[in-house]
User: Fold Spore germination protein B1 from Paenibacillus plantiphilus.
Amino acid sequence: MEQILGDCHDLSILPWQYGPDMSRSAVSFYFDTIVMNKQVNYMKSVLQDMVFHEVGPGTEVTTESIIHFFEQKGVNAQSAELVSNLDAAVNRVLDGYVVILYDGWNKALCFPATGVETRQISEPVNEAVVQGPRESTVENLKKNIALLRIRLKSAKLKLVTLEGGGETRTTIAYLYLKGVIHEELLAEFKRRIVRVKELDIMETSYIEELIQDSLYSPFPQYRITERPDVAVASLIDGKIVVLSQGSGSMLICPGLFVEMLQASEDYYQRTLGATLIRWVRIVAFFLALTLPSIYIALTTFHPEMIPTVLLLAILDAREGIPFPAFVEALIMEFFFELLREAGIRLPRPVGSAVSIVGALVIGEAAINAGIASPIMVVMVALTGIASFSIPQYNMAIALRIMRFPMMVMASFMGGFGILFGLLVILWHMMTLRTLGQQYISTMHWSGPQQLLNVFIRAPIQYLNRASHRKQGTGQTPQPNE
Assistant:
Protein backbone atom coordinates (compact mmCIF):
# COMPACT_ATOMS: atom_id res chain seq x y z
CA MET A 1 0.00 0.00 0.00
CA GLU A 2 2.85 2.41 0.80
CA GLN A 3 4.54 1.65 -2.51
CA ILE A 4 1.36 2.25 -4.52
CA LEU A 5 0.11 5.33 -2.63
CA GLY A 6 3.48 6.79 -1.72
CA ASP A 7 4.50 10.44 -2.22
CA CYS A 8 1.06 11.57 -1.08
CA HIS A 9 1.35 13.89 1.92
CA ASP A 10 -2.38 13.65 2.64
CA LEU A 11 -2.22 9.85 3.05
CA SER A 12 -2.73 8.92 6.72
CA ILE A 13 -1.29 5.58 7.87
CA LEU A 14 -2.25 4.80 11.46
CA PRO A 15 -0.92 1.64 13.15
CA TRP A 16 -3.20 -0.03 15.73
CA GLN A 17 -2.32 -2.28 18.65
CA TYR A 18 -4.98 -4.37 20.33
CA GLY A 19 -5.36 -7.50 22.42
CA PRO A 20 -4.77 -8.11 26.16
CA ASP A 21 -1.05 -7.41 25.91
CA MET A 22 -1.30 -5.09 22.89
CA SER A 23 0.58 -7.63 20.81
CA ARG A 24 -1.90 -7.71 17.96
CA SER A 25 -1.27 -5.35 15.01
CA ALA A 26 -3.53 -3.54 12.56
CA VAL A 27 -3.16 -0.51 10.33
CA SER A 28 -5.61 1.91 8.68
CA PHE A 29 -5.20 3.91 5.48
CA TYR A 30 -7.16 6.95 4.32
CA PHE A 31 -6.72 10.34 2.68
CA ASP A 32 -7.35 13.04 5.27
CA THR A 33 -8.26 15.56 2.53
CA ILE A 34 -11.39 13.65 1.46
CA VAL A 35 -12.31 11.89 4.72
CA MET A 36 -14.24 13.55 7.53
CA ASN A 37 -12.85 13.12 11.05
CA LYS A 38 -16.33 12.50 12.43
CA GLN A 39 -16.70 9.60 10.02
CA VAL A 40 -13.42 8.12 11.27
CA ASN A 41 -14.59 8.51 14.88
CA TYR A 42 -17.90 6.88 13.97
CA MET A 43 -16.03 3.97 12.41
CA LYS A 44 -13.92 3.54 15.58
CA SER A 45 -17.02 3.53 17.79
CA VAL A 46 -18.67 0.94 15.55
CA LEU A 47 -15.63 -1.30 15.80
CA GLN A 48 -15.57 -0.95 19.59
CA ASP A 49 -19.26 -1.80 19.84
CA MET A 50 -18.75 -4.82 17.60
CA VAL A 51 -15.92 -6.14 19.70
CA PHE A 52 -17.64 -5.47 23.04
CA HIS A 53 -21.15 -6.69 22.22
CA GLU A 54 -20.54 -9.30 19.54
CA VAL A 55 -17.16 -10.83 20.36
CA GLY A 56 -17.94 -10.54 24.05
CA PRO A 57 -16.66 -8.46 26.96
CA GLY A 58 -15.09 -11.48 28.59
CA THR A 59 -13.59 -12.94 25.44
CA GLU A 60 -10.01 -12.35 24.45
CA VAL A 61 -9.91 -10.13 21.37
CA THR A 62 -7.64 -11.88 18.91
CA THR A 63 -7.21 -11.82 15.19
CA GLU A 64 -9.05 -15.12 14.99
CA SER A 65 -12.05 -13.80 16.94
CA ILE A 66 -12.26 -10.69 14.75
CA ILE A 67 -11.99 -12.78 11.58
CA HIS A 68 -14.66 -15.14 12.86
CA PHE A 69 -16.98 -12.25 13.68
CA PHE A 70 -16.66 -10.42 10.36
CA GLU A 71 -16.74 -13.53 8.15
CA GLN A 72 -19.53 -15.33 10.00
CA LYS A 73 -21.78 -12.47 11.09
CA GLY A 74 -20.88 -9.93 8.43
CA VAL A 75 -20.31 -6.21 8.65
CA ASN A 76 -23.23 -4.48 10.32
CA ALA A 77 -22.03 -0.93 9.71
CA GLN A 78 -23.76 1.01 6.99
CA SER A 79 -22.14 0.55 3.55
CA ALA A 80 -19.05 -1.18 5.02
CA GLU A 81 -17.58 -4.07 3.08
CA LEU A 82 -14.79 -6.63 3.01
CA VAL A 83 -12.35 -6.87 0.09
CA SER A 84 -9.75 -9.55 -0.52
CA ASN A 85 -7.81 -7.90 -3.35
CA LEU A 86 -5.03 -5.33 -3.02
CA ASP A 87 -6.20 -3.35 -6.04
CA ALA A 88 -9.72 -3.21 -4.62
CA ALA A 89 -8.36 -1.94 -1.29
CA VAL A 90 -6.37 0.79 -3.06
CA ASN A 91 -9.44 1.81 -5.06
CA ARG A 92 -11.46 2.07 -1.83
CA VAL A 93 -8.85 4.40 -0.34
CA LEU A 94 -9.04 6.53 -3.50
CA ASP A 95 -12.85 6.52 -3.23
CA GLY A 96 -12.70 8.07 0.24
CA TYR A 97 -12.94 4.94 2.38
CA VAL A 98 -11.05 4.10 5.54
CA VAL A 99 -9.32 0.76 4.92
CA ILE A 100 -8.21 -1.36 7.89
CA LEU A 101 -5.77 -4.27 7.53
CA TYR A 102 -5.37 -6.84 10.33
CA ASP A 103 -2.18 -8.83 10.71
CA GLY A 104 -2.90 -12.46 9.91
CA TRP A 105 -6.06 -11.78 7.89
CA ASN A 106 -6.09 -11.73 4.08
CA LYS A 107 -9.07 -9.34 3.86
CA ALA A 108 -9.42 -5.61 4.30
CA LEU A 109 -12.25 -3.90 6.17
CA CYS A 110 -13.50 -0.79 4.33
CA PHE A 111 -15.69 1.97 5.77
CA PRO A 112 -17.04 4.88 3.68
CA ALA A 113 -16.01 8.21 5.20
CA THR A 114 -16.06 10.70 2.33
CA GLY A 115 -16.54 14.25 3.53
CA VAL A 116 -16.06 16.49 0.49
CA GLU A 117 -18.42 19.47 0.49
CA THR A 118 -20.60 19.92 -2.60
CA ARG A 119 -22.79 22.69 -3.94
CA GLN A 120 -26.19 22.92 -2.29
CA ILE A 121 -29.42 22.56 -4.25
CA SER A 122 -30.36 25.93 -5.74
CA GLU A 123 -32.27 27.42 -8.67
CA PRO A 124 -31.32 26.31 -12.19
CA VAL A 125 -28.82 28.61 -13.86
CA ASN A 126 -29.40 27.74 -17.52
CA GLU A 127 -33.11 26.82 -17.41
CA ALA A 128 -34.76 29.54 -15.38
CA VAL A 129 -38.58 29.65 -15.29
CA VAL A 130 -41.15 32.21 -14.20
CA GLN A 131 -43.49 29.56 -12.80
CA GLY A 132 -42.63 26.03 -11.76
CA PRO A 133 -40.16 24.08 -9.59
CA ARG A 134 -36.90 25.85 -8.83
CA GLU A 135 -34.71 22.93 -7.80
CA SER A 136 -31.58 22.16 -9.78
CA THR A 137 -29.24 19.20 -9.85
CA VAL A 138 -25.86 19.43 -8.13
CA GLU A 139 -22.50 17.67 -8.49
CA ASN A 140 -23.46 14.87 -6.11
CA LEU A 141 -24.83 11.75 -7.82
CA LYS A 142 -26.84 10.46 -4.85
CA LYS A 143 -28.54 13.80 -4.33
CA ASN A 144 -29.51 13.97 -8.00
CA ILE A 145 -30.97 10.47 -7.95
CA ALA A 146 -32.89 11.37 -4.79
CA LEU A 147 -34.37 14.42 -6.55
CA LEU A 148 -35.70 12.10 -9.26
CA ARG A 149 -37.00 9.40 -6.94
CA ILE A 150 -38.84 11.85 -4.70
CA ARG A 151 -40.81 13.00 -7.76
CA LEU A 152 -41.30 9.63 -9.46
CA LYS A 153 -42.51 7.22 -6.78
CA SER A 154 -42.92 4.17 -8.96
CA ALA A 155 -41.67 0.62 -8.61
CA LYS A 156 -41.11 0.65 -12.38
CA LEU A 157 -38.28 3.16 -12.01
CA LYS A 158 -35.07 1.19 -12.47
CA LEU A 159 -31.54 2.38 -11.70
CA VAL A 160 -28.33 0.92 -13.12
CA THR A 161 -24.85 2.08 -12.10
CA LEU A 162 -21.51 1.41 -13.74
CA GLU A 163 -17.97 2.68 -13.44
CA GLY A 164 -16.09 4.63 -16.07
CA GLY A 165 -12.59 3.69 -17.13
CA GLY A 166 -9.26 5.45 -17.17
CA GLU A 167 -7.86 7.17 -14.11
CA THR A 168 -11.08 8.89 -13.03
CA ARG A 169 -13.29 5.78 -12.54
CA THR A 170 -16.32 8.07 -12.53
CA THR A 171 -19.54 6.53 -11.28
CA ILE A 172 -22.27 6.67 -13.93
CA ALA A 173 -25.96 5.91 -13.47
CA TYR A 174 -28.92 5.71 -15.81
CA LEU A 175 -32.62 5.43 -15.03
CA TYR A 176 -35.67 4.28 -17.00
CA LEU A 177 -39.25 3.19 -16.44
CA LYS A 178 -39.65 -0.53 -17.04
CA GLY A 179 -42.69 -1.34 -19.14
CA VAL A 180 -42.76 2.22 -20.51
CA ILE A 181 -39.49 2.43 -22.41
CA HIS A 182 -39.22 0.64 -25.74
CA GLU A 183 -37.18 -2.54 -25.21
CA GLU A 184 -35.22 -2.20 -28.45
CA LEU A 185 -34.31 1.36 -27.51
CA LEU A 186 -33.07 0.20 -24.11
CA ALA A 187 -31.06 -2.66 -25.63
CA GLU A 188 -29.36 -0.30 -28.08
CA PHE A 189 -28.51 2.12 -25.27
CA LYS A 190 -27.00 -0.67 -23.15
CA ARG A 191 -24.89 -1.75 -26.12
CA ARG A 192 -23.43 1.74 -26.47
CA ILE A 193 -23.08 2.76 -22.83
CA VAL A 194 -20.42 0.10 -22.17
CA ARG A 195 -17.98 2.35 -24.06
CA VAL A 196 -17.66 4.53 -20.97
CA LYS A 197 -15.55 1.79 -19.39
CA GLU A 198 -12.79 2.54 -21.89
CA LEU A 199 -12.24 6.28 -21.32
CA ASP A 200 -11.99 8.90 -18.59
CA ILE A 201 -15.40 10.50 -18.00
CA MET A 202 -15.20 14.02 -16.60
CA GLU A 203 -18.74 15.22 -17.33
CA THR A 204 -22.06 13.97 -18.67
CA SER A 205 -21.35 15.55 -22.07
CA TYR A 206 -18.52 13.02 -22.50
CA ILE A 207 -21.15 10.27 -22.47
CA GLU A 208 -23.19 12.15 -25.06
CA GLU A 209 -20.30 12.13 -27.51
CA LEU A 210 -19.55 8.46 -26.91
CA ILE A 211 -23.05 7.15 -27.62
CA GLN A 212 -24.36 9.55 -30.30
CA ASP A 213 -25.13 8.32 -33.82
CA SER A 214 -23.57 11.12 -35.88
CA LEU A 215 -20.41 12.63 -34.45
CA TYR A 216 -20.16 15.49 -36.95
CA SER A 217 -23.81 16.51 -37.17
CA PRO A 218 -24.42 20.09 -35.99
CA PHE A 219 -27.70 19.03 -34.39
CA PRO A 220 -27.67 17.83 -30.76
CA GLN A 221 -28.99 14.28 -30.57
CA TYR A 222 -29.57 14.26 -26.81
CA ARG A 223 -31.02 16.80 -24.44
CA ILE A 224 -29.06 18.29 -21.56
CA THR A 225 -31.00 19.45 -18.50
CA GLU A 226 -30.37 20.44 -14.92
CA ARG A 227 -34.05 20.36 -13.93
CA PRO A 228 -35.36 17.24 -12.11
CA ASP A 229 -38.93 17.92 -13.31
CA VAL A 230 -37.80 17.80 -16.95
CA ALA A 231 -35.95 14.53 -16.34
CA VAL A 232 -38.99 12.96 -14.63
CA ALA A 233 -41.29 14.03 -17.49
CA SER A 234 -38.84 12.45 -19.93
CA LEU A 235 -38.82 9.20 -17.96
CA ILE A 236 -42.61 9.09 -18.12
CA ASP A 237 -42.36 9.63 -21.88
CA GLY A 238 -40.18 6.54 -22.24
CA LYS A 239 -36.72 8.13 -22.26
CA ILE A 240 -33.47 7.22 -20.50
CA VAL A 241 -31.84 9.68 -18.09
CA VAL A 242 -28.06 9.46 -17.60
CA LEU A 243 -26.18 11.03 -14.67
CA SER A 244 -22.56 11.02 -13.57
CA GLN A 245 -20.74 11.80 -10.35
CA GLY A 246 -19.29 15.29 -10.31
CA SER A 247 -21.65 16.68 -12.95
CA GLY A 248 -24.73 18.85 -12.44
CA SER A 249 -26.15 18.00 -15.88
CA MET A 250 -28.42 15.13 -16.85
CA LEU A 251 -28.53 13.55 -20.30
CA ILE A 252 -31.93 12.64 -21.77
CA CYS A 253 -31.79 9.89 -24.40
CA PRO A 254 -32.94 10.16 -27.12
CA GLY A 255 -33.43 13.86 -27.83
CA LEU A 256 -35.77 14.62 -30.75
CA PHE A 257 -35.89 17.79 -32.80
CA VAL A 258 -39.25 19.15 -31.64
CA GLU A 259 -38.23 18.66 -28.00
CA MET A 260 -35.33 21.07 -28.52
CA LEU A 261 -37.86 23.86 -29.06
CA GLN A 262 -39.97 23.03 -25.99
CA ALA A 263 -39.45 24.12 -22.40
CA SER A 264 -40.75 22.75 -19.12
CA GLU A 265 -42.59 26.00 -18.48
CA ASP A 266 -44.90 25.21 -21.41
CA TYR A 267 -46.78 22.88 -19.07
CA TYR A 268 -46.85 25.33 -16.16
CA GLN A 269 -48.56 28.11 -18.13
CA ARG A 270 -52.09 28.24 -19.52
CA THR A 271 -52.70 26.66 -22.90
CA LEU A 272 -53.07 29.84 -24.98
CA GLY A 273 -50.01 31.54 -23.52
CA ALA A 274 -47.85 28.43 -23.82
CA THR A 275 -48.96 27.84 -27.41
CA LEU A 276 -48.14 31.43 -28.38
CA ILE A 277 -44.68 31.16 -26.82
CA ARG A 278 -44.09 27.85 -28.59
CA TRP A 279 -44.88 29.42 -31.97
CA VAL A 280 -42.63 32.36 -31.13
CA ARG A 281 -39.80 29.87 -30.61
CA ILE A 282 -40.51 28.22 -33.96
CA VAL A 283 -40.36 31.60 -35.70
CA ALA A 284 -37.19 32.44 -33.74
CA PHE A 285 -35.61 29.19 -34.96
CA PHE A 286 -36.04 30.19 -38.60
CA LEU A 287 -34.99 33.78 -37.95
CA ALA A 288 -31.79 32.69 -36.21
CA LEU A 289 -31.03 30.37 -39.12
CA THR A 290 -31.96 32.44 -42.17
CA LEU A 291 -32.36 36.16 -41.37
CA PRO A 292 -28.83 37.31 -42.41
CA SER A 293 -28.94 35.12 -45.54
CA ILE A 294 -32.38 36.48 -46.50
CA TYR A 295 -31.02 40.03 -46.22
CA ILE A 296 -28.01 39.12 -48.38
CA ALA A 297 -30.19 37.43 -51.01
CA LEU A 298 -32.70 40.28 -51.23
CA THR A 299 -30.18 43.11 -51.41
CA THR A 300 -27.81 41.31 -53.79
CA PHE A 301 -30.03 39.27 -56.13
CA HIS A 302 -33.69 40.13 -55.58
CA PRO A 303 -34.08 43.88 -54.90
CA GLU A 304 -37.37 43.82 -56.86
CA MET A 305 -38.95 41.84 -54.01
CA ILE A 306 -38.31 44.67 -51.53
CA PRO A 307 -41.00 47.39 -51.26
CA THR A 308 -39.87 50.60 -52.93
CA VAL A 309 -39.82 52.75 -49.80
CA LEU A 310 -37.85 50.12 -47.85
CA LEU A 311 -35.48 49.62 -50.77
CA LEU A 312 -34.75 53.33 -50.92
CA ALA A 313 -34.08 53.34 -47.17
CA ILE A 314 -31.68 50.39 -47.53
CA LEU A 315 -29.86 52.02 -50.45
CA ASP A 316 -29.55 55.26 -48.54
CA ALA A 317 -28.20 53.43 -45.47
CA ARG A 318 -25.70 51.43 -47.55
CA GLU A 319 -24.37 54.46 -49.38
CA GLY A 320 -20.65 54.68 -48.78
CA ILE A 321 -20.30 51.10 -47.39
CA PRO A 322 -17.12 49.68 -49.04
CA PHE A 323 -18.13 46.01 -48.65
CA PRO A 324 -20.81 43.90 -50.34
CA ALA A 325 -23.70 42.71 -48.19
CA PHE A 326 -22.14 39.28 -47.60
CA VAL A 327 -18.82 40.64 -46.32
CA GLU A 328 -20.65 43.23 -44.23
CA ALA A 329 -22.84 40.53 -42.64
CA LEU A 330 -19.85 38.24 -42.11
CA ILE A 331 -17.90 40.94 -40.28
CA MET A 332 -20.79 41.90 -38.02
CA GLU A 333 -21.69 38.28 -37.24
CA PHE A 334 -18.09 37.53 -36.36
CA PHE A 335 -17.87 40.43 -33.93
CA PHE A 336 -21.24 39.54 -32.43
CA GLU A 337 -20.06 35.97 -31.78
CA LEU A 338 -16.85 37.37 -30.33
CA LEU A 339 -18.77 39.60 -27.92
CA ARG A 340 -21.06 36.74 -26.92
CA GLU A 341 -18.11 34.48 -26.14
CA ALA A 342 -16.36 37.24 -24.21
CA GLY A 343 -19.49 37.84 -22.13
CA ILE A 344 -19.56 34.15 -21.18
CA ARG A 345 -15.86 33.87 -20.27
CA LEU A 346 -15.56 37.08 -18.29
CA PRO A 347 -16.44 37.13 -14.57
CA ARG A 348 -20.20 37.29 -14.07
CA PRO A 349 -20.37 40.84 -12.59
CA VAL A 350 -18.70 42.34 -15.65
CA GLY A 351 -19.53 39.78 -18.34
CA SER A 352 -23.08 40.92 -19.10
CA ALA A 353 -22.10 44.60 -18.94
CA VAL A 354 -19.19 44.11 -21.35
CA SER A 355 -21.28 42.15 -23.86
CA ILE A 356 -24.14 44.66 -23.91
CA VAL A 357 -22.04 47.82 -23.82
CA GLY A 358 -19.55 46.32 -26.26
CA ALA A 359 -22.32 45.53 -28.75
CA LEU A 360 -23.71 49.05 -28.52
CA VAL A 361 -20.32 50.73 -28.79
CA ILE A 362 -19.01 48.57 -31.62
CA GLY A 363 -22.29 48.80 -33.53
CA GLU A 364 -22.39 52.58 -33.27
CA ALA A 365 -18.70 52.84 -34.13
CA ALA A 366 -19.11 50.56 -37.17
CA ILE A 367 -21.97 52.72 -38.45
CA ASN A 368 -20.04 55.99 -37.94
CA ALA A 369 -16.93 54.52 -39.57
CA GLY A 370 -18.89 53.43 -42.63
CA ILE A 371 -18.05 49.76 -42.16
CA ALA A 372 -21.65 48.59 -41.61
CA SER A 373 -25.08 50.01 -42.30
CA PRO A 374 -27.67 50.55 -39.54
CA ILE A 375 -30.02 47.97 -41.04
CA MET A 376 -27.25 45.34 -40.95
CA VAL A 377 -26.68 46.04 -37.26
CA VAL A 378 -30.42 45.59 -36.72
CA MET A 379 -30.40 42.29 -38.64
CA VAL A 380 -27.48 40.91 -36.62
CA ALA A 381 -29.07 42.01 -33.35
CA LEU A 382 -32.41 40.38 -34.26
CA THR A 383 -30.59 37.18 -35.22
CA GLY A 384 -28.81 37.09 -31.86
CA ILE A 385 -32.03 37.74 -29.92
CA ALA A 386 -33.77 34.96 -31.85
CA SER A 387 -31.00 32.50 -30.99
CA PHE A 388 -31.26 33.44 -27.30
CA SER A 389 -34.92 32.37 -27.28
CA ILE A 390 -34.08 28.73 -28.08
CA PRO A 391 -34.50 26.72 -24.82
CA GLN A 392 -31.68 24.26 -25.52
CA TYR A 393 -28.26 25.94 -25.60
CA ASN A 394 -26.73 23.19 -27.76
CA MET A 395 -29.47 23.73 -30.38
CA ALA A 396 -28.65 27.46 -30.39
CA ILE A 397 -25.01 26.53 -31.05
CA ALA A 398 -26.16 24.38 -34.00
CA LEU A 399 -27.97 27.39 -35.46
CA ARG A 400 -24.83 29.52 -35.05
CA ILE A 401 -22.87 26.89 -36.99
CA MET A 402 -25.40 26.53 -39.84
CA ARG A 403 -25.97 30.28 -40.20
CA PHE A 404 -22.64 30.87 -41.93
CA PRO A 405 -23.05 28.22 -44.69
CA MET A 406 -26.53 29.63 -45.33
CA MET A 407 -24.99 33.10 -45.77
CA VAL A 408 -22.44 31.69 -48.22
CA MET A 409 -25.17 29.96 -50.25
CA ALA A 410 -27.24 33.18 -50.31
CA SER A 411 -24.23 35.19 -51.53
CA PHE A 412 -23.73 32.83 -54.50
CA MET A 413 -27.28 31.91 -55.56
CA GLY A 414 -29.60 34.26 -53.71
CA GLY A 415 -32.99 32.84 -52.80
CA PHE A 416 -32.26 29.61 -54.65
CA GLY A 417 -29.19 29.17 -52.44
CA ILE A 418 -31.32 29.60 -49.31
CA LEU A 419 -33.82 27.04 -50.61
CA PHE A 420 -31.00 24.62 -51.45
CA GLY A 421 -29.48 25.05 -47.99
CA LEU A 422 -32.84 24.44 -46.28
CA LEU A 423 -33.39 21.30 -48.37
CA VAL A 424 -29.93 20.00 -47.41
CA ILE A 425 -30.67 20.64 -43.73
CA LEU A 426 -34.07 18.92 -44.04
CA TRP A 427 -32.50 15.95 -45.80
CA HIS A 428 -29.89 15.66 -43.07
CA MET A 429 -32.57 15.78 -40.37
CA MET A 430 -34.62 13.13 -42.18
CA THR A 431 -31.65 10.76 -42.30
CA LEU A 432 -30.30 11.58 -38.84
CA ARG A 433 -31.01 9.07 -36.08
CA THR A 434 -30.66 9.44 -32.35
CA LEU A 435 -30.13 6.20 -30.46
CA GLY A 436 -31.48 4.42 -33.53
CA GLN A 437 -34.66 6.52 -33.66
CA GLN A 438 -35.45 9.04 -36.38
CA TYR A 439 -34.56 12.55 -35.30
CA ILE A 440 -37.85 14.10 -36.43
CA SER A 441 -40.01 11.04 -35.74
CA THR A 442 -42.46 12.96 -33.55
CA MET A 443 -43.35 15.05 -36.60
CA HIS A 444 -44.73 11.96 -38.35
CA TRP A 445 -48.48 11.44 -38.30
CA SER A 446 -49.16 8.98 -35.49
CA GLY A 447 -52.42 10.37 -34.19
CA PRO A 448 -54.02 13.80 -33.88
CA GLN A 449 -53.20 14.15 -30.18
CA GLN A 450 -49.46 13.62 -30.69
CA LEU A 451 -49.37 16.08 -33.59
CA LEU A 452 -51.44 18.49 -31.50
CA ASN A 453 -48.85 18.50 -28.74
CA VAL A 454 -46.04 19.20 -31.22
CA PHE A 455 -47.34 22.46 -32.65
CA ILE A 456 -49.53 23.67 -29.78
CA ARG A 457 -49.62 23.01 -26.07
CA ALA A 458 -52.80 21.03 -25.69
CA PRO A 459 -54.77 21.22 -22.42
CA ILE A 460 -53.43 18.87 -19.77
CA GLN A 461 -56.68 16.92 -19.46
CA TYR A 462 -56.59 16.08 -23.19
CA LEU A 463 -52.92 15.18 -23.43
CA ASN A 464 -52.43 11.48 -23.97
CA ARG A 465 -48.95 10.76 -22.66
CA ALA A 466 -49.35 7.09 -23.48
CA SER A 467 -48.85 7.96 -27.16
CA HIS A 468 -45.32 9.13 -26.28
CA ARG A 469 -44.39 6.15 -24.12
CA LYS A 470 -43.72 3.91 -27.09
CA GLN A 471 -41.85 6.40 -29.21
CA GLY A 472 -40.13 4.68 -32.06
CA THR A 473 -42.54 1.73 -32.26
CA GLY A 474 -41.81 -0.15 -35.44
CA GLN A 475 -38.38 1.42 -35.78
CA THR A 476 -35.50 -0.93 -35.24
CA PRO A 477 -32.43 0.82 -33.79
CA GLN A 478 -29.45 0.52 -36.08
CA PRO A 479 -25.86 0.09 -34.89
CA ASN A 480 -23.73 3.20 -34.71
CA GLU A 481 -21.45 3.15 -37.73
Residues 141-255 form one domain.
